[in-house]
Design brief:
6 helices; alpha/beta; 5-stranded parallel sheet; about 160 residues
Length: about 160
């Protein structure tokens, strides 16, 4: 999203003409160009407190992130990278606030799917995250960062 909008749209159009599918990975802080909403899949990395970015312009109340969220559809995704149980609670609160219908019964079907995964080895394991997801009956998918299983994080700077 840091690219010039017209150039980005032109690039995406070229890729589409060549038969490619385009996924945009973004933290949602810059508004999505409306002309890309129908031509790209979006994955929004919703920043949580453990990232160190949740208490500034990237936080839960960031207007652009919320506006972008409401532009997403079921083919898109929101990713929560979870560093601790506190991050899990924060993510679950966001989910309850934005995905669940006003009666509090079930997720809205046209909203994006949710992926959650651990990050930074700060105090929660994949097993603990899965247990929390199951215990809270959340329809989230586990996102395992494969690069962390391929390369030694300390050697590669991952």
């Amino acid at each position: 999203m840091l690219q010039k909008t017209e150039e980005l749209i032109e690039f995406v159009n070229i890729l589409h003409k060549r038969g490619h599918t385009v996924e945009m990975f973004t933290n949602g802080t810059l508004l999505y160009p409306e002309r890309l909403l129908d031509t790209c899949f979006f994955v929004m990395d919703w920043k949580l407190p453990g990232s160190g970015e949740a208490n500034n312009t990237f936080g839960m109340n960031n207007k652009n992130r919320i506006d972008n969220f409401y532009q997403l559809c079921a083919a898109d995704a929101v990713k929560f990278t979870i560093a601790s149980q506190e991050d899990f609670v924060f993510a679950a609160t966001i989910y309850q606030r934005y995905w669940i219908d006003e009666r509090g019964k079930k997720p809205l079907e046209h909203y994006p799917q949710v992926f959650a995964g651990i990050v930074w080895d700060k105090g929660i394991t994949n097993e603990q995250l899965v247990d929390l997801i199951l215990k809270n009956d959340l329809p989230w998918r586990l996102n395992v960062q494969v690069h962390n299983h391929i390369w030694d994080r300390s050697q590669r700077g991952i």
